[in-house]
Amino acid sequence: MAFENSIIGQIGNTPLVEATHLINKKGVRLFLKLEGNNPGGSVKDRPAFNMINEAIKRGDVKKGGTLVEATSGNTGIALAFISKLLGINMVLIMPENSTEERVKTMRAYGAEVILTPADVGIEGSRDLAFKLRDEKGYVLLNQFENDDNWKAHYKTTGPEIWEATNGKITHFVSAMGTTGTITGVSAYLKEQNSNVTIVGAQPADGARIPGIRKWSPEYVPKFFNPKKVDIVVDVSEEEAKNTTIKLAKEEGVFAGMSSGGSVYCALQIAEEINEGVIVAIICDRGDRYLSSTLFE
């Protein structure tokens, strides 16, 4: 199926813009990859399409079939709109404390949404997804173990960044959730230049930052390879929130809290180097969080 003229064909090729106010250090430049410009509003459009499309190619799911997936939000929105366009039913499972905007958006696209207790987190949602797969015969994409997740970024996000920086990128910074973005982009960039430094943002102990996770050992995404990440920076809720607000007020970039975490790490790196080109992922758009306390 050709997608060039459909909304699916608009996934990717997102803008890369330079931060001109958050950083003022001669020899160091910071660029922001605006993934909120994807049609589904986040970086997750890329792996969502790749996972569904590859599953169709393999014959894992057919038109009229049903997919099930656990999500904290952005992946679910992407899966919801893409699955319907491809004639596939979508059941999404997420914690009940997810923002209202996300739940309503998924349902608007026609997905069935099941909410799990907040106290069991996304891990509880993942457990229910496996249960529905076994009991109802749904096809589980399992973004946390699916190689088509990170390969989407190897095929698209990485090459876009390399081309847009004319191969001059020295540091790549991303929040770590499913770790698909950082894994795929790292794999591509390291092939082009092994000296590119890959930086991952993770929550500090006790911090709750939507889109960034520090997984318990049994839930660590199966495809994640720690060797793909050169530096891991812990981010507090306050640091992520304050940077998210600064992004909006000082750069005109309206994004979610995970993007604030990513940019906070990028700014830490900028302080430590004398020259370089840093690219940070802006995961999604801020309007997805207006019902939360993020911008209060």
What does this entry look like structurally?
Its EC number is 2.5.1.47. This protein is an alpha/beta fold. It folds into two domains: 164 residues, 3-Layer(aba) Sandwich (Rossmann fold), CATH 3.40.50; 97 residues, Rossmann fold (3-Layer(aba) Sandwich). It contains eight helices and ten strands. It has a six-stranded mixed sheet, with helices on both faces. Strands 5-4-3-6 form a four-stranded parallel sheet, with helices on both faces. It is globular and about 60 Å long. It starts with 15 loop residues before the first strand and ends in a 14-residue tail after the last strand. The model has no long low-confidence stretch (mean pLDDT 95).
For the termini, the CA-CA separation is: 45 Å
How many helices does DSSP assign?
8
Our Rg estimate from Cα atoms comes to: 18 Å
At CATH level 2, the architecture of the largest domain is 3-Layer(aba) Sandwich
Catalytic activity: O-acetyl-L-serine + hydrogen sulfide = L-cysteine + acetate
Pathway: Amino-acid biosynthesis; L-cysteine biosynthesis; L-cysteine from L-serine: step 2/2
Keywords: Amino-acid biosynthesis, Cysteine biosynthesis, Pyridoxal phosphate, Transferase
Family: Belongs to the cysteine synthase/cystathionine beta-synthase family.
Descriptive labels:
single chain, 18% strand, Rossmann fold, 2 domains, alpha/beta, 8 helices, pyridoxal phosphate, 296 residues, globular, six-stranded mixed sheet, four-stranded parallel sheet
